[in-house]
């Protein structure tokens, strides 16, 4: 499938050959920017360039190899395809060892060149998408917990409000719903973002020196040592999996919640700390009280805001977006391209109950990128309370989104791929609120 409108930057000093290759590539659907030398394109290229460079090795002034070296300083991932005379083949092979995408000895087949351009464009699109993902992950501290469903929009609205306050919070939701990442997101969006973010895991309490690790030691006893609570001063202290904190540790935590003070080992007076506390609970409120009244007391004493974090089955329409983000994340981490998502894969994604929520979906995405979790075209029966009509509508929207993304918004390409009349395609896009322009890369 041709990436319609994608840019090919052609550098060729032979006027007749440059004109012929330009025309042939334009007939293939590419936008060609042709130059007779390398200095001008070097000045206009940037790390955001989404196209492919096709360059002759022998050029006036700066030759293709020198141009390639300068281009790698600008962005080593911009794909460069070399065309060479017979005597320049060794130079082109050496350039490929240094990262060039391909080379073609003259005379060459423009149709084969176009196929190489198409492959290089796919790799370039993946690089740019991974860079965008990396920037988003750095900004958010992890994949976004928000989507487009009503449940996700409600969660985002609540989080946006509470992040601007200094109120203590209880994040309550089933295991794997992203509560830890959400706690980090709230801290990063708060006035305490540049201050410490300290997480207390229940496993700490199994250590025989748990009190020392948490509350530190006063210098009057021995060499002073700061604990986790003191290190959180000015920032956020997260009490993770608070339902699993041992009974004997709860009284001191409850006092910390009440007074924002703690007594270090050997100290005669308590230390005061300025901390915001976020507790993470995997049980609903009734179950938490039934399981342990002491644990419920610690949560109650926070006197803050309880933020319910929805399970994945409460926001099924977000599954395609979450899955795509996780796949892009693992393509980046594993440095490999994922296989195409087929009908059986989407059927599984949209009908599986996902008891492990986002954590399970993320693991599935990792296996998908590795080629370990592919599904046959026929999937398991649809289960749960969602109607068949709703599931089919979500499946149809997902197929349309994927096709538009692959075609960069080209209606003609989507129509050909899905083999449906143009009017029917437009009707379906309007029904799902999809605009082809939103999927164009330019």
From TrEMBL:
**Name recorded for this polypeptide:** Response regulator
Enumerate the spans annotated as Sigma-54 factor interaction domain: 145-370
Residues with the modification 4-aspartylphosphate, per the entry, are: 56
Q: Which PANTHER family match?
A: C4-DICARBOXYLATE TRANSPORT TRANSCRIPTIONAL REGULATORY PROTEIN DCTD, TRANSCRIPTIONAL REGULATORY PROTEIN
Q: Which keywords accompany this UniProt record?
A: ATP-binding, Nucleotide-binding, Phosphoprotein, Transcription, Transcription regulation, Two-component regulatory system
Residue ranges of every copy of the Response regulatory domain listed in the record: 7-121
One GO biological-process annotation of the entry reads:
regulation of DNA-templated transcription
List the InterPro entries hit by this protein, alphabetically.
AAA+_ATPase, AAA_lid_NorR, CheY-like_superfamily, Homeodomain-like_sf, P-loop_NTPase, Sig_transdc_resp-reg_receiver, Sigma_54_int
* Pfam families named in the record: AAA_lid_14, Response_reg, Sigma54_activat
Note whether Nucleotide-binding occurs among the keywords: yes
């Amino acid at each position: 499938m041709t990436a319609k409108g994608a840019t090919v930057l052609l550098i060729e000093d032979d006027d007749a050959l440059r004109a012929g290759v330009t025309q042939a590539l334009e007939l293939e659907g590419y936008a060609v920017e042709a130059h007779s030398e390398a200095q001008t394109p070097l000045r206009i290229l940037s790390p955001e360039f989404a196209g492919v460079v096709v360059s002759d090795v022998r050029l006036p002034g700066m030759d293709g190899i020198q141009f390639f070296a300068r281009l790698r300083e600008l962005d080593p991932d911009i794909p460069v395809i070399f065309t060479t005379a017979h005597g320049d083949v060794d130079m082109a092979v050496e350039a490929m060892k240094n990262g060039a995408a391909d080379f073609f000895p003259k005379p060459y087949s423009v149709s084969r060149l176009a196929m190489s351009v198409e492959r290089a464009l796919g790799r370039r699109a993946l690089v740019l998408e991974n860079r965008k993902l990396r920037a988003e992950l750095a900004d958010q501290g992890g994949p976004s917990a928000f989507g487009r469903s009503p449940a996700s929009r409600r969660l985002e609205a609540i989080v946006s409000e509470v992040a601007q306050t200094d109120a203590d919070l209880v994040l309550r939701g089933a295991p794997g719903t992203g509560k830890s990442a959400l706690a980090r997101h709230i801290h990063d969006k708060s006035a305490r973002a540049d201050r410490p973010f300290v997480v207390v895991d229940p496993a700490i309490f199994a250590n025989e020196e748990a009190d020392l690790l948490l509350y530190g030691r006063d210098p009057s006893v021995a060499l002073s040592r700061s604990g986790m609570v003191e290190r959180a001063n000015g920032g956020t202290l997260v009490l993770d999996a608070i339902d699993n904190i041992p009974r004997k540790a709860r009284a001191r935590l409850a006092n910390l919640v009440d007074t924002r003070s703690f007594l270090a080992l050997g100290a005669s007076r308590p230390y005061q700390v300025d901390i915001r506390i976020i507790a993470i609970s995997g049980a609903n409120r009734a179950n938490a009280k039934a399981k342990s009244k002491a644990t419920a007391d610690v949560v109650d004493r926070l006197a803050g805001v309880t933020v319910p974090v929805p399970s994945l089955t409460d926001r099924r329409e977000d599954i395609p977006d979450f899955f795509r983000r996780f796949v892009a994340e693992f393509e980046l981490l594993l440095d490999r391209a994922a296989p195409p998502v087929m009908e059986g894969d989407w059927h599984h994604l949209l009908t599986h109950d996902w008891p492990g929520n986002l954590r399970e979906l993320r693991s599935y995405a990792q296996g998908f990128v590795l080629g370990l979790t592919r599904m046959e075209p026929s999937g398991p029966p649809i289960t749960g309370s969602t109607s068949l009509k709703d599931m089919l509508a979500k499946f149809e929207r997902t197929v349309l989104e994927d096709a538009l993304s692959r075609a960069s918004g080209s209606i003609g390409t989507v129509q050909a791929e899905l083999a449906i009349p143009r009017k029917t395609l437009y009707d379906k896009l309007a029904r799902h609120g999809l605009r082809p322009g939103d999927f164009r890369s330019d």
